[in-house]
Structure formats: structure tokens, C-alpha cells
């Protein structure tokens, strides 16, 4: 059996439950082959030499974890700069927030070249290499330039933007051309595959040379949608553990006279959190029977507070929440409970189960696994209702959710009202269908489907 090599910007110890379903799923495959997981150590060395970083290796059971330090200049250009100030906003359709600093791309290429150089001596001839996410798009091209002939697959966890938005990135053709160094490119949704295909047809005169295979820029790549899932059994066990049960019982008792609406997000401009608060305000205004009876719990965990776009977002959100509470609150009822902290993962299933409505309304998201976790946490005898943005990748699969346009404040408020009023038989029927699809396409299916396709793409 070929050894699996996983490359991602950050690593997690797959033996630790806190690592999450993705790390556990990758860990299973890595353990089967005595695999290698490679990436950035998370350490930033002040005053180091650009393009150079110390490498560290350690064992996690049968898995070898290999990490490389970054100097400050490389971190700021590769990670803070090109990855998170160019690719993240553009791929989420926010050209207005992109910082096209010309120095960033040089740092991005330099770090990907360093990673390739550090990784190459660790590789075996029959390794299967799986590269993850937008930080490492050119990694295969760098490895190929150094003589690497192994099968290499890439999975993009964030959305693929439409061609005209992608074309706003300086040197966008170089970026997309580098994806043709992979044998397989996996994307979250069929919409993402359509955007990729349209781009390479427009910009690279691509032609189809078989099912899901495209030829452009002098190379051929297979492109498929692999919607990522969650570890349903792991999350179910988490929901049955004491911390989740205690959270559910405490919330249920404290809000015994209220219907709970729940949003759990990272504080990021892609998540549409201010739009959600405005829709909730519209709900209270248009449907006054929800006053003093519906409470929205809004958990927005900290994210890059040192970046202006995020500090501005936090200020806007706090103003909106304060305005709703000031205009509609009573002495014994606070309409919005806003929490700007990370809630322990072991308590999330209890929170989800206590909520009559799950609000997952990003402006754009590659997938959004919170939507799937909310469904799995529900009591099938009396399930809550998922209100889901049509701009989340999950909307392609979770069609029985109430799909909304988060830019349409009034329409979203109407859908929340529909969710609050939905009869039990309809809630049960929707939940049953959602659960079946989430279980069928869980994180283990995702991993096996991708690696099987990579095996076939390399044949």
C-alpha cells in the first residue's frame, strides 16, 4: 500500500479528539500507511532568513509530523499577505477588501518553494501526496520542477470564484496554471467546478479530454466536486457526552419560556453576521409575536482582530446587537445574546440541540460544517429547523433546509418565521432526509472518494 503524505498549512495531532473530524479522518488514512503530515509549525522566527526555516519532526503513533518554521518576513507575505489578504477575500467575492500588494506574491512563491525543497527528501517513490487549501496552490508545480513524479492531489476548502472575479488577481493565470501540475483537483461543489471550468476555457482555451478531465496550459488535470462532510458518529458521541448534555439541560432550563435561534461562526466578513442581526431585527418588527419569546444566541469567535476589516466588523456587530437589545429588550428579556469568545467544542452539540432554529447564513462559504453539525445534534422526534444561506456550499446537498439569500433581509426574516412556525411532521420529514444525506456523504466518504479518484487519475 502506498504511503499517504498530507500537506497543509497547519497540522493537528490526529490522536487528539479536539483535533476535529477532518484531522481524525486524515489520521485514519495516515495511520493505515504509516503516513507523513507536513506543514508550517505555527512558529514565527523574528529576524530569520527569508526562504529558510528550521524543520522539526516528531511521531504521533504511526504518523510522522514534519513542520517548518517561518521567518517574520515570510509569514507576513505568505500567510498574512497573499493567503489571507488576497486569496481569502477574492475567493469569497470581496474584491473591496483585497490588498494587492506586489510584494506578497513573491513571499507566497518563496514559501511554497521552501516547503517543496524541505519536503522532497522525505518523499518515497510510491507516495500519494494530498495538498490542502489556498495557502499551497503552487506546491505541486514547485515539486514537479524539482523532479517529483508522484501522484499529487489538491483539495480547495474555500470557494472557487467566478472567472471575472478570479481575473482581478494580479498574475491570476500563473496561479490557475499551477493547478494543472496536480493529477486531481477537488472542489467543494458543482458550482465551484463550473467556475473553474469556465475560467480555464476562457483564459487557457481548455478542452475536455474525458469525463471531468481538462487540458490547458500544456497539461491535463481531473477536476471533481467532493463535498466535505463531518464525522457523524464522532459528533453524535460528543453530543451524548456529559459536557454537551449539561449544556443542553442548562440552556433548556434557562430559556424554558423562549424559542432559541443559534448562530455559531468565526468573526469573519464572509459569514454574513451583521446581515443576520438585521434579519432578526426585521423578524421582531414584522412578527411582533416573537418579542419576549424568541432569543438569538450569537457566538462569533475571535478571528484576526489585528486586521482592520475584522476590528471594523466587530465594532459594527456590537453596535447592531446593542441597538436591537436597546430598542426591543425588556427587563426580563434580552433579544440578542452576543458572545465574542470561542465556545468549547464539547459544548457545541448541546447548544445546537437546544436551538429551535439554526442560522447558518454566510455571504459565501466553501461548505460550512456547522450546518451539518446542527442537523446531527437534533432530537429526531422534535428536531429544530436549519435556515441556510444559498451561498454556502452545503446548500447543494442540504436542500431540505430553508434556503435564504442573506442579502434579502425581509426574505430571511420571513424564512426564520416559517422555521419557528413549522409543524412537527414537516420538521421531522426534513430532518430525516437531511440526516440521511449527511450520513451518506460524511468525512470518511469524502476522504475515500478523493483518494480513490486520485488513484484512478494517476493510472
Features:
459 residues; alpha/beta; Rossmann fold; 2 domains; ten-stranded mixed beta sheet; six-stranded parallel beta sheet
Describe the structure.
The protein has 459 residues and is of the alpha/beta class. It has 2 domains: 4-229 and 443-457, 3-Layer(aba) Sandwich (Rossmann fold); 232-439, Glycogen Phosphorylase B (Rossmann fold, 3-Layer(aba) Sandwich), CATH 3.40.50.2000. 44% of the residues lie in helices and 20% in strands. The protein has 16 helices and 16 strands. It has helices at residues 21-33, 72-91, 102-119, 139-145, 163-166, 172-178, 190-204, 232-240, 242-254, 273-286, 308-328, 348-354, 369-377, 409-421, 424-440, 443-457, and strands at 4-7, 36-45, 55-60, 63-71, 128-132, 151-155, 184-187, 207-210, 213-216, 219-225, 259-266, 294-301, 336-339, 357-360, 385-389, 402-404. The chain is globular. The model has no long low-confidence stretch (mean pLDDT 93).
CATH first level of the largest domain: which class?
Answer: Alpha Beta
Q: Write out the strand line-up for the largest beta sheet, numbering strands in chain order.
A: 3-4-2-1-5-6-7-10-9-8
User: What is the tally of helical segments?
Assistant: 16
Decide which structural class fits the backbone.
Answer: alpha/beta
State which percent range the strand residues make up.
15-25%
Q: Describe the biggest sheet? A: 10 strands, mixed
CATH fold label of the largest domain? Rossmann fold
Mean pLDDT: 93
CATH superfamily descriptor of the largest domain:
Glycogen Phosphorylase B
CATH architecture of the largest domain: 3-Layer(aba) Sandwich
Low-confidence stretches at least 5 residues in length (pLDDT < 50)?
none
How many discrete domains? 2
Distance between the termini: 15 Å
